[in-house]
Amino acid sequence: MKSDAVTSAPLGELLTPFSDHEATLEANRCLYCYDAPCIHACPTHIDIPTFIKRIADKNLLGSAKTILESNLLGATCSRVCPVQELCEGACVLGSDHPPIQIGRLQRYAMDAIRGRETQTVSIGDETGKSIAIVGAGPAGLSCAGELRKLGHAVTLLERRAVGGGLSTYGIIQLREPIDIAIGEAAFIERLGVKFEYGVELGHDKSLAELRRDFDAVYIGVGLGQSPDLHIPGEEWIFDGLRLIEQSKMEAAPMKLGQRVVVIGAGNTAIDCATIAKRLGATDVTIIYRRTIDEMTAYPHEYEFAKAEGIRFEFLAQPSAVITDEQGVTGLTCQRMHLGPDDSSGRPSSIPVPDETFVVEADQIIKAIGQVRHPLASLLGLGIENGYITVDENFETTLAGVYAGGDCIRATGAASTVMAVQDGKLAARSIHQAIMGGPS
Amino acid sequence: MADLTCRFAGITSPNPFWLASAPPTNSGAQVHRAFEAGWGGAVWKTIGAPVLNVSNRYGAWHHGSQRMLGINNIELISDRPLADNLREIAEVKRAWPNRAVIVSAMVESTPEAWHEIVRQIEDTGADGIELNYGCPHGMNERGMGSAVGQVPEYCEQITRWVKNVAKIPVIVKLTPNITNIIGPARAALAGGADAISLINTINSITAVDLESFDISPSIGGKGGHGGYAGPAVKPIALNMLASVAGDELISKSGIPVSGMGGISVWQDAAEFVLLGATSVQVCTAAMHYGFRIIDDLCDGLSNWMDARGIADLNDIRGKSLPRLSSFQDLDLSFRAVARIDADKCIQCNLCYAACNDAAHQCIDLVNSAGKVIQPGYSERESGKRLATEDRPKPVVREDDCVGCRLCHNVCPVEGCIDMVEVPSGRQSITWAKLSAEKPELTNDWDAMKRYRDAMGIHIH
User: Fold this and answer.
1) Which domains does chain B carry?
2) Which residue of B has its CA nearest to A37?
3) Taking CB atoms and an 8 Å limit, are A90 and B365 in contact across chains?
4) DSSP symbol at A406
5) Looking at beta carbons, which residues of chain B come within 8 Å of A38?
6) How much is the ipTM here?
7) Could B384 and A41 be called an inter-chain contact, meaning their C-beta atoms sit closer than 8 Å?
8) Is the pLDDT score of A5 beyond 70?
9) What is the pLDDT of residues B113-155, one digit of tens each?
10) For an interface test with A, which of B363, B372, B388, B407 has the most A Cβ atoms less than 10 Å from its Cβ?
11) Looking at domain A234-366, which CATH architecture does it have?
């Protein structure tokens, strides 16, 4: 098995694609469970045993169709899903055998039909209704595609120049090459969705205009930038998502430091640390103010990071960036200890008096989550805890305006596949509402 | 350690495993290597009339990741010159005096041709002759092979021609491509055969090419039926072996049977012996994995015999034959139900699907609180924990279970679903006895209902 194989390019896709032989062997290992737990575990409830059986049967178009029926972003999800926590984690073989490599099999089926995904989708009769979607990330693409399948006219507004959202800009190439994400947006476009790039809601278009011109509006704008740390020397700190974006969008090889500190212990922090290490940093340290038990990175990501040679400094909070005339030389950290639970339900992190230390560094990156999108309040939508409030139909407090994806879901629980499911369920709600069916 | 020595119609070999007459016994060099590996005997690839072969001669049936569960071939008898074969047979026998060297033969159906080949074989010093009455392709079109095996009169006639001159034991190899194998078996006996071997290969077409629509394998765009062998044919071979070995005339005659058809592991060989085989022949397994498998065959069989206290295979030969029964003599009151070991169950729920869709709807999915759960999921919920914690387990409603055994057969976990005998509360009765006592039960559903009600037989 080549499951641990690493491609030669430092930032190339981590897992090699399955060969036909590997895929067939792995597909034949699947027991074809009835009412399979992998289906239950998948947020989009892909009929996994069926798509795997079709790989074994060498019906790859049928396999991809099964995937896309439940999840139009099957190519991205096959790469970025935390399968250990979802389908593969639920595989009945997992107790005493390696679980079926569902993610890689899904990727195999999706790769096999790349560029001809539309052959698997049928578009309903035109309804004469139109919907505006804001944001071409997973939530928006999923909703747009599902609405097209139902025969609605869909216009997708994206403020950036390329579709795909975080799949395009925020997922490191080790997990998903950028052409996969862009290709997925192109597939949604080929379904007949009209894309308008460079259009920002609240700037180029108002919500009132969209509500006037369309039968419904769906907002999938994701989240904003990283919050500030409010420490001296903050201007020297590089934003993690920008780092990932550069690693994907810029042709020239990136120049990173030799001793890199990453602040934060979520999956994005681990991605940033991985890039730094793979681009030649000798020391990469992740610092986190709580402990291993509270960090939001998945356990398998933590194990991956350790295997990459990344060091973890727990119970440490940055207090100042140290610089000289050359630039950054280190980060002063405050030693912390755990206290009573805070409002997030996790133990609070409290400074240990007079205990500080310095981590030497020539580059500091922060990946401490994203702030809630300021757009929500600007648009006059109801918000809760900074996230857009929606009801069970994904409708916001404004009638006919729906939302889904990261902008409605607290960070940590959010994932691409959940955004895809939001978009799918919201599309059904919108369809029922505008077609006069039961809501 | 158990003694595996095999004595078969006067032929002795150190173990009962003979390579069957087939490609692995095509030449002296091959048989020499097979004997070095430890094979007890070899039946030389059939010699006789001149032939020419074609390419793409082996087809195969694969299932899932299992390769070659069945192999089909249209290779003819030996295409090497008769003189070369005869010389090499003599060399091999000289080099391996304690191994069984048997020569399979097939010639034109005249006494002269058969007398000539018998004389030539005996000159090599071989231990026996196997008459190939089974080849189902090519040779039968020339009046040989299965063309003989399918007509008991020919079978008897040719056997007699051979026996009239042969001084070494004569084994008649039967074709399975016949409605009742007893006919040719008894004909061989009547012709004077010293032993019988079975089964030869089964008529088959393995596949059609979905690109070209050619029969697969394709010989320049054409294909035909070939002889089928390999693990997939074992159950057919066992049935035919049991018919022949259990036949009154054959068993009374005391002539031994050499069993073959899909033997791949030592367990298969033990089963053949229990149904009456004295020696066993192997081909496909050697074609798949090479001669080295003889070690596993001997070792496994010997360890099993030691564990069971069996000193000699003769002690168990045919021991399962008395257990063979026709349906009408089976006990209708015997009751077994499926029981699922919850600790071993991995909750694939294949048993549930099989029972519910294709059997008798007597498995429920039950959660830890004992509640019956319908399959399905909520679209709004997901995650490993939700999917695995308290996933309902399949539970058999034993009162409703008819004991069909389908769930036991589909379960992928060894020892998870057992068929457990439970008292039926009824006296033993066979259909033969019941239909004799109550003939109305054979043609009157109302009578059957009354009988069932009286006996407490409820079929839901």
Assistant:
1) 6-323 (3.20.20.70), 327-432 (3.30.70.20)
2) B387
3) no
4) G
5) 387
6) 0.91
7) yes
8) no
9) 999 999 999 999 999 999 998 877 777 878 887 888 899 999 9
10) B388
11) 3-Layer(bba) Sandwich (3.50)
C-beta of residue A373 within 8 angstroms of C-beta of residue A223: yes
Sign of the C-alpha dihedral, residues A140, A143, A148, A149?
A: positive
3-state SS assignment for residue B259 = strand
Alpha-carbon distance A350 to nearest alpha carbon in chain B (angstroms): 32
Q: Between A42, A95, A418, which is nearest B346 by CB?
A: A95
DSSP per-residue string spanning A303-355: HHHHHTT-EEE-SEEEEEEEEETTEEEEEEEEEEEEEEE-TTSSEEEEEEEEE
Q: What architecture is the A20-119 domain classified under in CATH?
A: Orthogonal Bundle (1.10)
Q: What is the pLDDT of residue A438?
A: 52
Among A349, A303, A398, A379, which Cα is nearest to A84's?
Answer: A303
Q: Domain map of chain A by residue range?
A: 20-119, 124-224+371-434, 234-366
Answer CATH for A124-224+371-434 from 3.50.50.60, 3.40.50.970, 2.60.40.420, 3.10.50.40: 3.50.50.60
Pairing of strands B277-282, A363-366: unpaired
Q: What mean pLDDT comes out for the span A265-269?
A: 90
Please write the tens of the pLDDT for every residue from A332-390.
999 999 999 988 788 999 999 999 999 999 999 999 988 776 777 778 889 888 889 99
Q: What is the pLDDT of residues A222-233, one digit of tens each?
A: 988 888 999 999
Of the candidates B6, B135, B155, B355, the residue annotated as catalytic is: B135
Whether A90 contacts chain B with CB within 8 A: yes
Please report the number of interchain residue pairs, chain A to chain B, with beta-carbon separation below 8 angstroms.
74
Active site residue B135: yes
Determine which helix (DSSP H) or strand (DSSP E) holds A189, and give its type and residue range: helix A178-190
Q: Which chain A residues touch B386 with a CB distance below 8 Å? A: 40-41
* Same fold? A124-224+371-434, A234-366: yes
CB contact under 8 A, B379 and A425: yes
